[in-house]
Design goal:
Layout lengths: L1 E5 L1 H9 L4 H10 L3 E5 L1 H12 L1 H7 L3 H14 E3 L9 H14 L4 E4 L9 E2 L2 E5 H9 L4
Parallel strand pairs: 1-2, 1-4, 2-3, 4-6
Antiparallel strand pairs: 5-6
Helix pairs in contact: 1-2, 2-7, 3-5
Length: 141
C-alpha cells in the first residue's frame, strides 16, 4: 500500500468537491488502497480553512456538522509527529516535506504541476492528484 501526503490545496479540494481526483484519493484511502499521512498541525490548518467565510459558503455545513466533520478528519489519516513551528508559507511547504519524510511517503500530492527538477524529494515522488489517481486506477500497486 502506497504511503501518501496531500498538500493543503489538494486536501481542501478533496473535501469540497466529491467528484474530483483529490476526492478519489480519499476514496482510495477508505478502500485501503493507499494510506494517507498528516500531522496534527496540518489537520488544524485544514479545520481553520474549512471554517473560513469563503469556504463556509461553498460547503454550506452548519457549525455542528462542520465540527463533526473536522473531528472525523484524523480517522482518514495516520498522524505523524510534528517538528518546529510554522511562521510563513515556506514553513508550510517544509511541513509537507517533513511529514513526507517522517512517514516514509511514497508520494507527496501537490496542487500545481511539478517541475522536472522537483519530481522527487528524499525518495518521495512529487505528483499531482490526477497522476496518482491514474496510477492507483491502473492497479500499479
Amino acid at each position: 500500500m502506497w504511503r501518501v501526503v496531500l498538500d493543503y490545496v489538494v486536501l481542501t479540494s478533496a473535501l469540497l468537491n466529491p467528484h474530483g481526483a483529490p476526492a478519489r484519493l480519499l476514496d482510495f484511502a477508505l478502500q485501503k488502497r493507499v494510506r494517507l499521512f498528516a500531522t496534527q498541525r496540518m489537520m488544524s490548518i485544514e479545520g481553520r480553512a474549512l471554517r473560513s467565510k469563503a469556504l463556509r459558503q461553498w460547503h454550506g455545513m452548519t457549525d455542528r456538522e462542520l465540527a463533526r466533520f473536522i473531528a472525523d478528519l484524523p480517522v482518514l489519516f495516520c498522524l505523524v509527529p510534528e517538528t518546529g513551528t510554522l511562521r510563513d508559507k515556506r514553513s508550510l511547504e517544509s511541513e509537507l516535506l517533513s511529514c513526507a519524510e517522517r512517514s516514509h511517503a511514497d508520494f507527496l500530492v501537490i496542487s500545481g504541476a511539478s517541475t522536472p527538477a522537483a519530481t522527487e524529494q528524499g525518495g518521495t515522488q512529487i505528483v499531482t492528484a490526477d497522476q496518482l489517481v491514474k496510477l492507483v486506477g491502473r492497479g500499479v500497486l
